[in-house]
Amino acid sequence: MSDLVIRGGHLLDPAAGVDAPKDIFLKAGRVADIAAPGKLKGTNGAETIDAAGLTVAPGLIDMHVHLREPGFAHKETIVSGTACAAAGGFTCVAAMPNTKPVNDSVETTRWMLSPDRGALVRVFPIAAATRGSKGEAINDYAALKSAGAIAVSDDGLPILKDGIMREALAAAARVGLCVIQHAEDTRMTAGGSMNQGPASFRLGLRGMPAEAETSIVERDIRLVSELRDARVHLHVAHLSTAGALAAVRQARRNGLRVTCEVAPHHFLLTDEHVGFYNTNAKMCPPLRSAADRDALIEGILDGVVDAIATDHAPHAQYEKEVEFQSAPNGILGLETALGLSLRWLHKEAKLPLGRVLSLLSAQPAALLGMKGRGTLAVGSFADVVIFDPKAEWTYKVSETCSKSKNTPFDGWPMLGKVRWTISEGRIAFTGQT
Amino acid sequence: MTTAAPTLRRQLSLPQAPPSPFPYHQGSLLSVQDLSLDQINRLLARATELETMDPIERDRILFKRRIALLFYEPSTRTRTSFELAAKGLGADTTLVSNLSSSIDKGESLKDTGLTLRALGAEAIILRHNSSGAAWLLEEATRLPVLNAGDGMHEHPTQALLDLRTLLQKLRPGVTTVDQQTLEGVTITIVGDIFHSRVARSNMFLLPRLGATVVLCGPRELLPDLAAKTGPGIEIERDFASALRRSQAVMMLRLQAERLAGLQLDIDDYRESYQLTGPRLASFAPDAIVLHPGPVIRGLEITAGVADGFQSAILDQVHNGVAIRMAVVERALNAAKKGTPA
Lengths: 433, 341
Hints:
With 433 residues, chain A is an alpha/beta fold. Chain A has helices at residues 78-87, 106-113, 141-147, 162-174, 186-189, 198-203, 211-227, 242-253, 264-268, 290-302, 317-320, 337-348, 353-359, 362-367, and strands at 4-13, 18-27, 30-35, 47-50, 55-58, 60-65, 90-95, 122-127, 151-153, 179-181, 194-195, 207-208, 234-236, 258-262, 307-308, 384-394, 413-423, 426-430.
């Protein structure tokens, strides 16, 4: 790989406290030097990127994606999924284990990390918390961690049994991993295909009550507090309800290490967006009420929400073109997360640009303990996103890098266009002007 | 990690749900909500015209036009009356049912619809066990789709035939409706509201004509949030109180096929919600009794009431053919000038 100089851009690195015009020298996959414009030295032979008028920031980190490999390559592959990530400005993605086979082994974790997979940005496997994600017996976290797992989760399924969840939290803490919980009491959501409320009644669809999420989050928080071990880290995946957010807020006040992520579709859309059975508005947890949506925005603004994660979940078109109750859960997310976050959190809700970027990079890096990521301090990995923060554009799913097209955001206005994504010093994506 | 309490809610302008693109075809009838009062009046008037027309003349209206009936659930009344309606207008019909077709082999609804279209079907009448199936089929085929019942969601022709029956019994001589036509009229729907597409279509339609719809049943079958469906809808759990207010009472069958593991004490249910002769005589001696069928005698309603002088159950069945003739004609002739839209 050739060395790179990024000239003329505005460096915004919240973790390092930098918000100024800077030139950046990337060498051998790392940040080698940062200097005032025109002041870099020793960059002979390096390729130059002209970032005039653009924002240069740490590459985005999505701690919740489904790359579908192994097992579901008709939906997405590690190649297509990481191409999507690069197009969206992401340089790191944490891949959930609900593949076929379920990633509950050292072998599958290593298989995903093999250079043969052709990933365009860095993939961090999240290993299954329990064998086969069946919620019955926990896996060997030490072995999974040394194979490269960055966290454990049974995402798509909750860990329902108190004893197993307690064991998972304690065992993960001993090896320095967090447990990411898909908080859904499936005993309350059986047969449900959207949020329980007036809209589900009107549409004749069985509902998934908000309490199904809240009750598991509250149960998990109780388990964390009973364990009395500061290393225990519970992370709530795709938090979608006001009740669960309040529980996380209270847990923080009590000094517990309980964190959460929110997906753009949950802070922007409500169950009314299901319209007449739009399966591209079907995911789990489902789109919630306007009150829940407002609470999530509030939580992002006041800092209780730790990260924005997309829950990128590709499904083939034919799989989604079925009866609503039979359609699989999930939507794409990697290509729209930055554009939606800037449009609605920054422009509309006035969240400072640095805070938005932090939710999309520095904070998830810290949650997952990624060293040298989420910042562009000298010595860090050369994971960079260069984007035009003022550019307005329209998302067209016909141009997606994904193998799938399941998004409710086709034709939506976006703010902030990615021009380059650099993964460990290598240009992974070049956007059009 | 921050623990700050929520500050005052910001006044943000967040994205609104986009307008519905449905129906794609103006001949479709997916939901009663798609019909304006004008369109309802045209259908009611046309139903009467078609009913009284010389059958030989009527036979020419859709002579040799092709209509597919696609049925994923068993049906007696709806299927037969749609079929008689289409044939009464001269159309050729073909019945495709999930039990005797490639649906059984795993063919999707979309592919089944495209196949019927390729075979020359000009409209599809769909009965399906999934809510929203008619929307999926219409989007996929862009043909006129008539919703003959989608899961727990809607059954629009049933609501129209119920309206025709209510007008005949409660507003004799009235042939057109407006926002006041049913003012002062309370229609109580009793029983398994949650699983009922008949209840939903009537709840969406009758309040628009000024009626009050009272829903009556136990919590397991009638969640509180049903009252939030729209204006003019109330919940009254006590059957006697509901009956006292009612000019019409619509009994629903317990839908065993949709109860999905729900445990319900049938004896308790009968005790609280069965429409019996004494109940009717004590609390609603002048009300008419409706039932969309199939009637399970001795469960939600006694045989005596089903066959009694207040019962309009067979009037409903009879009205189904007339209403469905008007709806089928509209489906195939909607795009043509000079015919009722």
